[in-house]
Amino acid sequence: MDMKGKLRVTLVASAMLATACGGAATTPSPSIGSTLVIGSAISLTGSQAKEGNLAKQGYDLWYDWIQAQGGITVNGVKHPVSLIYEDDQSKPDLSATLLEKLITAEHAQFILGPYGSAATATDAVIAEKDGIPMVEANGAAQAIFSKGYKYTFGVLSPANKYLTGVIDMAATLSPKPTTVAMLSANDNFSVEVAKAVVDYAPSKGMQVVFNKTYPAAAPDVSGLLSQVKPLNPDIILNSGHLAEAIAINKAAKDLNINAKIFAYSVGPSTPDFVDALGKDANFVYDGSQWTPQVKYSPQFYLSVNQYVLAYKTKYNATAAPDYHVAESTAACLALQKAMENAKSLDPAKVRDALASLDVMTFFGEIKFDSRGINVFKPMVVEQIQGGVHYTVFPPDVANGQPQYPTPAWSQR
């Protein structure tokens, strides 16, 4: 299939998936309504294709589930769903152009967000202009929500929460780390993550001894790491994406930089990080929107364990889904529940239902502040140990202990 062209999702519901989702399709409504068209311009190729395809997996998991039930029931009428994708090739401007196409040419009535804060920011302009609700799961920069938009809602915890949990965890360890080096890509999301760390670390008795940015998607960050090495910081943090996290880790090894903690905002949670680095991925931490160890009791849809099973079944996977998958499914759940609550497909009424939404899902609480951000769901910290992801903080959801301090490269 040409990934640069339009993709239409078709239903393939296995018996095992149906079992994981609580059984076969529910009894059809007395009335079957028009097909709901939901669109998404998302990164299926380009520099963020790995993350974009994880997001698509999350959308498709929900699509299978809702189609197995015959669609979304709105005011007593069951509406089948058509989910249409366009490949934005990891280009934010193209994402906005394709979103406009989805709305005008494909007649998309509702929008699921793209991958990344930059594309989400450009898509939000289109959603606002056309008055089409967009629920997004992969744009955490708070700058997106500072424009007064009324039609964009983000289910994920905002960017300023991504690495502050690592600082909280570090403050509980012995010997307590006291110095931090902060590296950041120069996109809005990464800069917000870094600023939060710089502002927060001193409150935990930690000094930020290095804080510099590099161009997003930079293939070589060894120059910055060379500046970090003589400072010998206890903690090295990177705020960026998968490719940059891999580059940072490789450079740290090549330059024999030994810190007690290495933690990166995005990247370590994905299977690709471990695949790319092998044993060198061990001991790395990240802030995660969700892990299979969370203990939420959902009001509808699947439990955490059922979700993991559904993912492994559909994608023939041995590992549990990472948070990009889970948060993307959560966006679909928010949009579905808003339609049901609104008892209408009128975009303005669904928008109002999103603004007042408060529902517990397998992903956590979905509730939005006045800007459209979900500030009500906490994040967790995970660490790669022996090639496996363990949730290590906070203690009430942890299934492992931090392996600390990180051994020197020569001792691994």
What do these coordinates show?
The protein contains 12 helices and 18 strands. The protein is of the alpha/beta class and 412 residues long. The chain has 2 domains: 7-159 and 292-367, Rossmann fold (3-Layer(aba) Sandwich); 161-289 and 380-411, Rossmann fold (3-Layer(aba) Sandwich), CATH 3.40.50. The strands form 4 sheets. It has a 7-stranded mixed sheet with strand order 11-10-12-13-14-17-18, with helices on both faces. Strands 1-6-3-7-8-9 form a 6-stranded mixed sheet, sandwiched between helices. Strand 13, helix 9 and strand 14 form a beta-alpha-beta unit. Helix 2 crosses helix 11 and helix 8 (242-254) packs parallel to helix 9 (271-277).
The coarse silhouette is globular
How many helices? The count is: 12
Helix fraction by DSSP (H/I, runs of at least 4): 25-40%
Taken as a percent bin, the fraction of beta residues is 15-25%
Q: What class would the helix/strand composition place it in? A: alpha/beta
Any idea what the CATH superfamily of the largest domain is called? Response regulator
**CA radius of gyration:** 21 Å
Q: Strands across the major sheet, in which order?
A: 11-10-12-13-14-17-18
CATH topology of the largest domain: Rossmann fold
Q: Ends: how far apart?
A: 43 Å
CATH architecture of the largest domain: 3-Layer(aba) Sandwich
Q: What is the typical, i.e. mean, pLDDT?
A: 92
N-to-C series of helices and strands: EHEEHEEEHEHEEHEHEHEHEHEHHHEEEE
Write down the CATH class of the largest domain. Answer: Alpha Beta
Largest sheet: 7 strands, mixed
**Count of all domains:** 2
List unreliable stretches of 5+ residues. Answer: 1-6, 8-26
| Number of beta strands | 18
